[in-house]
Amino acid sequence: MMDMPRALTRLAVLFSAAFLVSATFAGAAAPQAAEPLAAPTGDVMLSVSGKITETNNADRADFDRALLQSLEWRTVSTITRWTEGILTFEGVPLNALLKKVGASGTKITATALNDYKIEIPASDAEEFDVLLALKSGGDWMAVRDKGPIWIVYPHDDDSAEDIPDLHAYRMVWQLRTLRVE
Amino acid sequence: MTDSAAGRTGPKSNAGKMLRALGANLTTVYVVVALGLVFFGIAAFSVYKIERERATTALVIRTSVWLIHQIEIELLRTKNTLDRFAAGLPDTDAKDVQLRFDILWSRIPVASTGLESEWLRTARGANEELRDLRQALESFDPVIRNLAQASAPSILAIGDQIGEHISRIHEISVDLHVGSHRQAILKELVERQHETAIVIGALTVVGGVIVVLLMFSVRANRKAAEQERAMRIFAENASQAKSQFLASMSHELRTPLNAVMGYSEMIRDKLLGEAESGRYEEYADHIYRSGGHLLGLIDDILDLTRIEEGKIVPDERPFDIRQNIDWCIDLIRARSGETTAEIIADIPDALPAIFGDERLIRQILLNLMSNAAKFTPDSGTISVSVALPDSGGLDVCIADTGIGIAAKDLACVFQPFAQVEGVMTKSKQGVGLGLTISRHFAELHDATLELSSALNEGTRATLRFPASRIVHQPN
Predict the structure, then answer these.
(1) Which one of B163, B229, B367, B369 has the fewest beta carbons within 10 angstroms of its own beta carbon?
(2) Dist CA B19 CA B403 (whole Å)
């Protein structure tokens, strides 16, 4: 029983790695600067502000679901401190989003719908493969399911007790804005 | 160089000794090391476990309090937003209400599953309240989804019900903060820490006792082994000495006996015919001499045996030493064929008496003079002198100009049956017991018998009586 989810995790990590490699090659082939940030057409889910070069709404970058989906997409399986068993998340790697908006800061302040606010080092994005998850178990996450966006720090530990406090604090659900500083 | 080498030898041999002792008890050492590792492992594991438990408890207390607060806050916000909407305030629309309601909704599963809410769920009435709240939210849902058609009283009713939940959640929150629940979990944790400390302490004490016992056992084993070895070596030496003694004795006894047998057979069978009767007398003389030698030998052996068994009790009284010296000199001179060496006596006129067993002292003197005569060539001299040293004792010195004894052999001439190689020839048959017996007899009189010699120059034997043995008789 334990082996299946773990195997899935490994598979997911492998896939993500493969995806990352292909994405890097794609990025090298087509410079991002050539593609300006499009304006959102649906409800705005995420607003990014601060030290960014790409914007689509005054000095900030607004994203609807379609815009986010157009970015790099990754699947991650992990346990969390608030759920049972292993969950499979899908979404945009934080790193990909930061690249897309041309972020240059060292820290990011994430704010949730309920005004929960926490500072995240920009280096976490790469170091811990942080994901902006939009889907859980194959379904879009509603506000009631900690959606529409949940910052996920993947962990393949067996025990939730092994997840560092700082990662737990930074796993902001119902994410609304990111401010790069 | 030599000093440093010698300096190193001490510690090195000590270390070697310890290593050998360790090697002999290798099993014990393994057991001690293994036990130590086991104890350390158990202690480390216990500490790790209690530390982890403490960390987890601290975590779930912290997070559970946070999560119950979040529910309370979202309940308040939802009620506030709902009230504003019901009041028709322009800054609040149906979407705002629905968002707040969804956020509140999302808090229920967070407080119901997962690690962080573990402790929250154990609070009094928490599970029931979470279940009731979920059911209440589900029952509000149709109204919230369709606020445009909802009646003002139904919205206000929802607000009122949320208010009731606020006070119930608040009670749980207070209980988690300061209630008996928190004290119970902290007390349990402290108790478990104490238990672990007691277990580790007991393990340490037991381990220590075992190590001490094992050390005692190692020491006792080593001591026993050393004693056993010493006894074995002693027994081996004793056995070897006995065998050597028997071998020597048999040889010494057989030689004159063979002569007795051989010559008597020749006489009995008249091997040389009747005509040679003159030779038979010579043979009879050989037989007589051999018999005499054998007798002396057996006497010596008996003396030695009695000495070794401590059965000789000297018959002590004052006696004249000069008389005895003279008697011995006469005897040696009289012994035909023994020597023609000159015997010079240098004895003071006035001599005190010696307190001791006359027979034993005479035997010492005779042995020493006999030895001197035996090993001195006919052209040599034997001098017998008596001196009265300042110590108040009396020294008898018998010096010869004989073949002497090499320094390396000097030490062993007092051993029973000692035969200095190349010296004991057939013509100078010696039992090798004379000096041994003489020294024993001297010791019985608190006297010393010293031998000094140089090869081919001569030997000097000195018998020293202490002052305590000198008797000055009134003239």
Answers:
(1) B229
(2) 52
